What we know:
Layout: H1 3-31, H2 40-63, H3 72-91, H4 104-133, H5 142-160, H6 164-188
Amino acid sequence: MTEWEFISVAISLILGLAVALVLAGALTAFRARGRTKLSPVVIAWTIYIFVSQLQFWWGPVRALGSLERISGPVFVAMTWQAVILFLAGGAILPADADDYPRDLSTYFEEDGRWAVLIYAAYWLLGIPILNMGVFAISLADPSNITGVLLGVLSAMVFWSSRWRVPATVLAGVVLAVNTLTAGQNVRELPGLGG
Length: 194
């Protein structure tokens, strides 16, 4: 097994569990829909975390194959990013179908919003580290600045205020811009274009 394959499998294992947590939470929410008031804000943040998990899996993990050598700090940073996405995915929705809240917003205000704070750590720690370590993009590049500042800003506004809908919309715009930028970054890597 090559260095890239080992690292890819290790990170993919964590990401696979992260995706499973989000999907299991979404299935539980779907099953509880008759007795629970669902919240569009909670559903949006769940989708954002899920998309970020897939984006991380498709972009940076895939990009590892183009690197000649993978440094220890890059491996640790990527593993932490996968763990952060795992934690965010596990906290975003309740997992217990038998004790599901009557109003999903209530759960989200008490426990689920921690997922947003954890998700902010993904933007704050991950985007600059991954862009610099994997994609060799300068910290001053607009994709770093936009992703980090707006991503963290939207999560912090969501966490600290009652501006839930505007912060959620801002986070969606940031995620869309970052997804387009990340897709372009991956296409520019040798052997991964197209």
